[in-house]
Amino acid sequence: MVGIPPKLSPEERKKVEPSAWLRVLPSLQGYRPGWLTSDVSAGLAIAAVGIPSAIAYPAIAGLPPETGIYASIGSVIGYALVGPSRRLIVGPDAATMAVMAAVLATVLQQMPGLPQADLVGAASLLSIGVGLICFAASALKLGNIASLLSRPILAGFFIGVAISIIIGQIGRVTGLKIESDGLVGPLTELIQKAHSIHWPSLLLALIMFAILQFVRMRPVGIPGPVIVVALSGLLSAIFNFEAKGIRIVGNLPTGLPSIGFPVHSGLPFDDLMLGAAAIFVVSFGAGIITARSFAARTGEDVDPNAELRGFGAANIVSGLLGGFAVTSSDSRTAVNLSVGGKTQLAGLAAAIVLAIAVAFFASYLRILPIPALGAILIAAALSVIDLDGLRQIWRISRVEFGFALIAMAGAISFGVLQGVVVAIIATFVYVILKEIQPRVALLGQIPGRLGFYKLHRSADVQPVPGLLICFIQGNLLFFNTDHVDGQLREIIAEHAPDTRWLIIDASAITQIDSTAIAMLEDLQRDLEGLGIRMGLSEVQSSVWTLLERCRFSSRLGPAMIFDDLDDALRAFRAAAPEAADARNEPAPA
């Protein structure tokens, strides 16, 4: 495991930092000159891995290849300025690109015939919009919004996105012009136009895809996309693929990207901002998972709100340079760690290498064959499909597996953009279903042992005679109060003749609302009519504040509010000592 740079005292930091400006960047705190060689080496490796995806990914959204390079350059610069992580590398991402493609498709539906330059401007505006949302969310401390899409739903959604990306490559790998959208349409059109398939293009794509899979299964020390780009470019130069009907990337701008705010008065800004919100949810949800997974390997802490600022800066700078929305890149981050990059200077070095590639090697990049890039995108989409994760979800929870399938079907059936909405709705439905039926468990004691245990777990657990201890395993909110009330009343009906006290263990209740408090008031009144006293134990401070505000705590009385169940048991025995003699129970600690 790559060790994290040690924390230094202010005096030590002044001795080892090469210049004062480095101290301004969060990820470069405590920088040591000896790390420069490692960072530069890592930057070269990151650029080598990044070039194939930088050129290929824009095709998902119908953007020119150079926008991917501009996004790769701008994003690492932005993140290095603000981002908190030393080693996380940002860049183009397949899922983020798929959502952005759906947003741009909506724009094209409203503005048919939109020039590609304006489409690039729309993508840049989306990137800036995502960045602004990130900063706003960070200011509002909404870092936990990353949990808006749970892992099962993200897993299903990404599979749907991957299938959509693979379908989108049919035209690129076959040489056909596929005009249909969705899942079934392109496949039907492929069958209808099978006689027109450009077989050299398909053969090239299959060979490059086979190379990618071979390198994935038997690593050779060089990433598969790098091999494919180098080999396909060499073959294109030798055999003149363009003359043989195999489509190539074409001319790329030879200059460096210029900074500017994309402006187009005719673009539907309302739709762009809604689209930016959708991209933000998916990109940050996926990005924070990547950040946490790599942080677990390096021993770093992840602050979601700080990462929001880093992602925000990455997206804004990317948009200002003519790029598109980005998030953390697992492949580039993995390369950075494996080569030994220490800080974000590795990302900045990669940006410099990419700028040099655009300025001096554009003539080589122009002859890259489109089918080879399509093979890279198909392989990248397949890598997003986590079948092992799905199998684990199936083993853990059939319900969660069902929601993963719903998210997957949403992305495939309704399109990626609508799939985001389906995934979010599925998340909220899942949360409500989990919260709507909290279980109420009866607690008792095991003779000779301290503590309280659930009666249904073991035959050794025995109830305390005359005392019902009900553990509510969840929050009490308007949508589950009837369910909890029904369980409590059923328990009371079964034990009413012998019950003198009912204590609710509230240790798991972190939220309560007015509907739930009204239910508790009604329950307490009915218990009084049965001669049963009601009390609460281990009440959370936030819940206690509401109980005091509505005076329910006063109605119970301080004598029936307990710090823990042991206190409640002692008070019960003191009020009815004869109950303690019914069994040989251990005295509470």
TrEMBL record:
Residues 457-572 form the STAS domain. It holds the Pfam family STAS. CDD domains: STAS_SulP_like_sulfate_transporter. The keyword Membrane applies. GO terms for cellular component: membrane. It is a multi-pass membrane protein. Keywords: Membrane, Transmembrane, Transmembrane helix. The chain crosses the membrane at residues 40-61, 67-82, 119-140, 152-171, 197-215, 222-241, 272-291, 345-364, 370-390, 402-433. GO terms for biological process: transmembrane transport. InterPro entries: SLC26A/SulP_dom, SLC26A/SulP_fam, STAS_dom, STAS_dom_sf. It is found in: Membrane. This is STAS domain-containing protein. It comes from Paracoccus litorisediminis.
